[in-house]
Amino acid sequence: MRFGAGWLSAGVAALLITAGCKEGKPVVEQEGEQASAAQNVEQAQERSEQAFDQAREAQGKASEEQEQAAQAQQDVQQAQRELEEAQAQAQTEAQQAQQAQQQAQQETQQAGQTASEAQASALEAQRQQQSETAQQAEQQAQQAEQQAQQTQQQAQQPVAAAPAPSAQGAQGEQLIVGEVMTASEREVLVSSRGEPQLRLQVQPGTTTIIVDGRPAKAVDIQEGSQVRASYRDMGGEPTATRIEVTTSRQPAVPAAPESGEPQPGAQPQEAPVQGE
Question: Considering the domain 170-246, what is its CATH architecture?
Answer without folding.
Answer: Beta Barrel (2.40)
